[in-house]
Structures are given as C-alpha cells and as structure tokens.
Amino acid sequence: MKKIISLFFIVTILLSACGVNQTITATTESSETEIAEPNSTPEETVVATTNIQVNEEALRGIEINVWTPWHEVEQSLFEALVKQFNNENQWGIKVNLQSQVNFSNLYESVNASLPTDQRPDLVIALPEHAQEWFDNRVAIDLNEYVHDARYGLDANDIYDIFWNQDIANDARVGIPAQRTAQFLLWNETWANELGFDNAPSSIENFEKQTCDAHASKLKDDVAENDALGGWLVNTESMTAYSWLLAFDGGILEEGNYRFMKPNNINAFRFLRELSEKNCAWQNASDPILSFANREALFITTSLEELPSVTRVFANVGNRDTWKVLPFPNDEDGVLVVYGSSYVMLKSNDEKQLATWLFMKWLLDNEQDKRFVEATHLFPLRSSTLSLLTDYEKTHPHWKQAVDLISVGQLQPQLASWRTVKIMLGDGFAHMYRVNTPSGQVAAILAQMENTAKELSE
C-alpha cells in the first residue's frame, strides 16, 4: 500500500577464493629420480564430500542469467569477467549478462520478473533489496553453499564489516560485491598554516578547525569568500547517518527505528550551530573544486571520488597535502560502509550451483584486484592487498581509506532501509534548506521517526 509522506519526504524509491576444499586435493607425486618400492600402491585422490546433490556433469552447458545495476566502467569490466569465466570455467557454465542501468531500475525489474519464468539467477543488488527478497522467499540462504566441504568459500580474509552486512538472523542473503564509504577530506597544509598539527579526532577539535578556517576568510581582502572556509555541508543520507553515529546515536533500538534520542539531537544541533556560526556552508557548485581552491577546509566525498580530487588539485595547480579521515567521535572515528552484494534467486539445484560457482569465482583475488583498479573501491579481501602494491603507490589516498576499514560500521540490516535511508537524506537536506534553527532540530528527528515507522510497516 502506498503511503503519503508529509512535509518533505520523497516518494520515489531509491537509486536506491578461493574456496575451502574447492578442488580435488592433489596427490603427492614422486620426483622423476625416485624409484618406487615394488609393492607400493598409488596414493588415492581424496574428493571432499558435499551436501549439494548435483552431478557436476549436469552443469555442462547450463546457462545462468545475471542482472547488474551498472553501466560504463563497472559494466565493461563485468562483461570482460563474464567472457573470461565463460571461456575458462571447468564446468562449461555459460553466463548471460544484462544491465539494468541503475539500482532503482534493477529493483523494479527484478520485482516484475519474480512471478514469471524470466527471473534472473543472480542479481547485483543492495543488501536491503536482498533482505526484502529473502523475506519474500525468493532469495536463497547461501549458508549451504558457503560452508559446503567441496564447493564452499573460504571467507577468512574477507573483511568482517563487508561480510556481515548480508545477514538476516542466521541466514546469509548475499555476499559482498562492492563496498565503499563516505569520508571527510582535510586540507592538512592549510590546517598547519592555521596552527593545527593534527587531523581532528574529536568533535571539539573539528569545530575549532572549521571555525578558524572561516575566520581566516574574514581577514583577507576578498569580500566574496567571507561566508566560506569551514566544512562544506553534504546532505547525503550516509553523511547524516555517519554524524549520528559519531555522536554515539543511531536510528535503531531493539530492531525498531528510533530517531528521537538525546545523542541524535546533539548531533543535528551541533551541525546546525556550525552553520549558524558560518563554520559550515552550503551550495557549492563543485565541492571538489571548492576544496582544491581552499574554499573549504573539509569536504565529504565517497571512496570512488578520490581520484577526481587528485586530478582537480593538479588542474588548479594546488600542491597542498590533503588526507582522508573518518567522521570524528573522540575515539577512532566513524565510517559507514555500504555497497552492492551478489544475491542468488531461487531456480533449481543445477542452476543454483552454477550460479554459486560463478559468484565464488568473482571473489577470487584476481577478480577482486581488477574491480579495485577499475572502480577505486575497497578490496573485499585483505589478501588482495598483496596484488595491489603498485596501485597503492599511485593512489596513496585510497590506501589511507583502506587503513580505516577497521573502524567501519554496518548499515541497518532491514529491508525497510531501502526507503528509510532516502527519507533520512531528504530530512537532513530539508533541515538545511529551510535553515532550521539549532534549537528546533528535535522536530525534524521526530518527523523522521514517525515516517520511518510508517515506511517499515
């Protein structure tokens, strides 16, 4: 049933390996110079047992359909990977690929296909989409495949914060495909000139640096920049969620949405007070260019945007040193990790095994490496870093981001997060759009809580 969301909330749905015992264990071969004992018997090849009741011969020639949300770079890479898998996989599996252009269109297309025999076998979707499809009994619990003795996946080197997102109670509704995050970028050179030797690790120091950066603009002879200098406001939903967590707030309580918390009020009040003191400002046409032109000491960007920041600094001739930071919280900082996952939809035993084998292959180190180099996102496996030493040297800010994975936090593991996160971002933007006074931010959070409850019913 469609719901009417009052005040400011949008109605459109969002844009929204190596394996354990994968292969037959190898026999120990004698060297060419060794003479076998006359009565010795050959060592037998040991085949791992499996609970998946599919004859591998039944996989030969089988076709699976994969839908992606990508176009351009990601889609081109994935097409190349599919071609490689089709040519090289030992089972003779053929993958057919179709782009749905973006997450929103993919979500709608998959839902439309579910009652038909045209549903895809594998979807690269958001975790909250996977949660919904699992709740509706059309997505597969992957635990049987992950833990299988023959076909299973060794996930020990997949970062926990990536691996744990796709859990619904005890079920595994997906495995990570891509992961990214929102970061603060900090101009270290400019901060040093302002008298700050270190990046802010506390809320108080973040405020001090933003306000001193603004004050520096009032001291020059350029009147046009008097409103600039501190944090350039970003109203993306992940930015809002990150700030709530930085204040030890959050939006869940005992599995239900709860926005009206003292710490959440403190977070929004702090951010609005920054704007009221002109230590934060809005509406830059190009935030990265503003950062490169020293119009903002801090901006907020996603991981995949870091190469663009490097290019813009070079284009304007700015040699300042800048760094990638988590959101400050008086401790190690806050980072909200998000991204897409591989989601298997129900079909038959043969197709599901074929789909799993393709999914598992995609998580091999070599494929993981190629995804990083093409998209600039996080590696899914820590062991992939050994293949990315050259990439690290040419992308030092990416390495700074990777070093922050340890402070990463999950998004809500609920199907309703699909719409609630859009509402969160829209409400956060509204707070700035109408210049809500800092003393009235509780009203915004109360409206968010009421709307979140409606959306999750």
Structural notes for this entry:
- The protein is 39% helix and 13% strand.
- By secondary structure, the chain is of the alpha/beta class.
- The chain folds into 2 domains: 56-179 and 339-409, Periplasmic binding protein-like II (D-Maltodextrin-Binding Protein, domain 2, 3-Layer(aba) Sandwich), CATH 3.40.190.10; 181-337 and 416-455, Periplasmic binding protein-like II (D-Maltodextrin-Binding Protein, domain 2).
- The strands form 4 sheets. Strands 7, 8, 11, 12, 13, 14 and 16 form a 7-stranded mixed beta sheet that branches. A 5-stranded mixed beta sheet has the order 2-1-3-15-6. It has a two-stranded antiparallel sheet with strand order 4-5.
- Strand 1 (63-68), helix 1 and strand 2 (94-99) form a beta-alpha-beta unit.
- Mean pLDDT is 91; it is low at 1-42.
CATH topology group of the largest domain: D-Maltodextrin-Binding Protein, domain 2
What's the total count of β strands?
A: 16
**CATH architecture label of the largest domain:** 3-Layer(aba) Sandwich
Low-confidence segments, given as residue ranges, are 1-42
Give the count of structural domains: 2
Q: Specify the CATH class of the largest domain.
A: Alpha Beta
User: Structural class, judged by helices and strands?
Assistant: alpha/beta
Write the layout of secondary structure elements.
Layout: E1 63-68, H1 73-88, E2 94-99, H2 103-113, E3 122-125, H3 127-135, H4 143-146, H5 160-163, E4 167-168, E5 171-172, E6 175-176, E7 180-187, H6 188-193, H7 203-218, E8 229-232, H8 237-246, E9 252-253, E10 256-257, H9 262-276, E11 280-281, H10 287-292, E12 296-302, H11 306-315, E13 322-325, E14 335-338, E15 341-344, H12 349-362, H13 365-375, H14 389-394, H15 396-402, E16 408-409, H16 417-433, H17 441-455
Parallel strand pairs: 1-2, 1-3, 8-11, 8-12, 14-16
Antiparallel strand pairs: 3-15, 4-5, 6-15, 7-12, 7-13, 7-14, 9-10
